[in-house]
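Hi all, posting the design record for the shared folder.

TITLE: backbone redesign
STEP: 1 of 1
STRUCTURE INPUT:
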């Protein structure tokens, strides 16, 4: 496959404008290095890692790939200063930030020569990210799995809106798992795509096999945005989800919802494979994912379909 040249491939020094999302409990060094070796940009998901664990994953990723890779850092992480210092110490070339104010850490990261990208759910937040000095933004529609925007704006609406609002490159995310969907995002103005759910169902993902198999078994309507009173998150429906749904229907307090969520719920579901009581974060696009494949095969499949469709006339 021939390398592709645009603003995103030039920014990151990669062959294809395909970014693997930094997902908690799924995106360790094996997945991120595999995606980077395939020509995309792999991201280590630091949100589920202690600082010493993140350092270990970065070092193992460096050993496994000579290509650029990055780290995703949720800005609500409790030990955020330690994660920031770790990526600086380890000279990580790219950092994706999310769930917080980009003004706080973007200038510090850029002082150390790190490329910074911020994930946004609205045009207003995209403008703030650009003003903070971010090199690009991810416009993530509410189809996406995991933590999500309260606005519930779809990717097809959000992507062109953000593209019309900022001058920096825009990466589209949410509901993208195929080359056809990637082409749609690029036609809407994006310069690249960030893909999460498709890579959860990859050989190298650190998510539990039970979770991977639940993802490829998912049907339309099997996920829903939940826990909006806390931090909105798209979940695969299971017994835990039903308990949350019942509690929200009964109008329980935020404190009661927090108690119901407890600690380690995402780890229990996605990493330990408890499909009943665990928090199973996945996107709507899971309904069209039918097979667990190596990350390299996923990148190749998406890019091959994208290029084939790009060359075809519209029907």
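Okay, here is what came back for every position:
SEQUENCE:
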């Amino acid at each position: 496959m021939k390398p592709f040249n645009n603003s995103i491939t030039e920014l990151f020094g990669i062959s294809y404008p395909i970014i693997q999302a930094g997902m908690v409990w799924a995106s360790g060094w094996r997945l991120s290095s595999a995606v980077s070796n395939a020509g995309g940009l792999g991201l280590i998901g630091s949100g589920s890692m202690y600082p010493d664990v993140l350092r270990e994953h970065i070092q193992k990723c460096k050993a496994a790939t000579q290509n650029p890779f990055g780290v995703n850092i949720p800005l609500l992480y409790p030990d955020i200063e330690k994660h920031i210092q770790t990526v600086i110490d380890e000279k990580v070339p790219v950092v994706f930030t999310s769930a917080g104010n980009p003004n706080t850490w973007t200038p510090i990261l850029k002082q150390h020569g790190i490329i910074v990208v911020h994930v946004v759910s609205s045009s207003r937040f995209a403008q703030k990210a650009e003003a903070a000095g971010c090199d690009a933004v991810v416009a993530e529609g509410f189809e996406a799995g995991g933590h999500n925007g309260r606005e519930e704006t779809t990717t097809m609406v959000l992507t062109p809106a953000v593209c019309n609002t900022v001058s920096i490159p825009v990466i589209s995310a949410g509901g993208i798992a195929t080359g056809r969907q990637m082409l749609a995002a690029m036609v809407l103005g994006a310069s690249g795509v960030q893909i999460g759910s498709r890579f959860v169902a990859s050989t190298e993902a650190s998510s539990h096999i039970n979770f991977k198999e639940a993802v490829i078994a998912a049907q339309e309507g099997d996920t829903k945005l939940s826990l909006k009173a806390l931090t909105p998150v798209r979940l695969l429906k299971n017994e835990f989800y039903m308990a949350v749904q019942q509690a929200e229907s009964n109008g329980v307090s935020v404190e009661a919802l927090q108690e119901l969520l407890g600690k380690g719920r995402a780890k229990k579901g996605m990493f330990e494979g408890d499909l009943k009581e665990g928090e199973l974060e996945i996107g709507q696009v899971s309904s069209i994912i039918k097979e667990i494949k190596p990350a390299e095969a996923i990148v190749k499949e998406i890019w091959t379909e994208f290029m084939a469709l790009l060359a075809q006339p519209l029907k």
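COMMENT: The chain has a mean pLDDT of 95.
Let me know if anyone wants the other runs.
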